[in-house]
């Protein structure tokens, strides 16, 4: 079944290149961060903020900067001005509408951002599991939906369970750009009872998901082991690494890197490069294509800064403005990626 899933039939050479150039780096970076923090390391806020700041130029923001090319390409067409314009319009309408929500109801906008990211990062990992790790055990829609909920919950829910104060600080940094004392209605979410209940439900979900995958796995257990190993590794990672740092690194080396490889597999030229093991050449080509709109997004960041009613003066506040921009760009981006999922038969 997995041959029909990713929309491109990956040769063994391509899969090797992706494993060594994409999967392994993500695993290694994650382990490299888990170890010191398990041993009790602590780092100052500005250091924790570095990966998220870097994501504005490398991997993070660029991963969405070719959405105008991705949509025609996933349908096997060359990008035309019309198709690119349609994606531009989608960004304009969705981004602006969501911007208005941030203005008038920042807490709703923040909650929406968490749920949107939960779905989006889950859907990104689902594609990677099917296409790169060939997890054939994810055969039913139910299992794929569970994969999205489980994978997306790792970055979005585990930090709430393990670092509620950080979570609240970041939530406050975002919402208070628009309204003071905005989080008062959310105190229940950070309470220990709430977190215990959420943690128990989520733990059961992970157990059920992995058990179902195990039962459905054929004789080759490697793909399931990759899924289970990644899931448990990320659960520990988000439970011990301070969330700003953990999310900044995850955004770059898991979500964005995996999505970028998905993108370079679409046009013939870069797909052939990946197939023959020249991953870096394909990534170089991507970097060129992603540069103009990455720069445009950075210009929008400047614009958003001017529009924010309560301008911050600290590192967290600066990151908060960047995260609100990401939120506004993510809504149309998710629409594009969901369309890609449809075209590439990710849901069967
Ligand atoms: C930074 C941070 C948080 C939120 C990060 C989010 C929501 C990032 C979304 C990024 C996206 C959508 C990127 C595009 O693909 C939490 C969870 C509140 C915990 C504290 C640290
Ligand atoms: Fe994305």
TrEMBL record:
EC number from the UniProt entry: 1.13.11.63
Classification via InterPro entries: Blh_diox
Membrane topology per record: Multi-pass membrane protein
A Gene Ontology cellular-component term: plasma membrane
Residue intervals passing through the bilayer: 21-39, 45-62, 83-104, 145-164, 170-189, 196-215, 235-261, 282-307, 319-340
Assigned protein family: Belongs to the Brp/Blh beta-carotene diooxygenase family.
The protein, known as: Probable beta-carotene 15,15'-dioxygenase
Organism (species): Halorientalis brevis
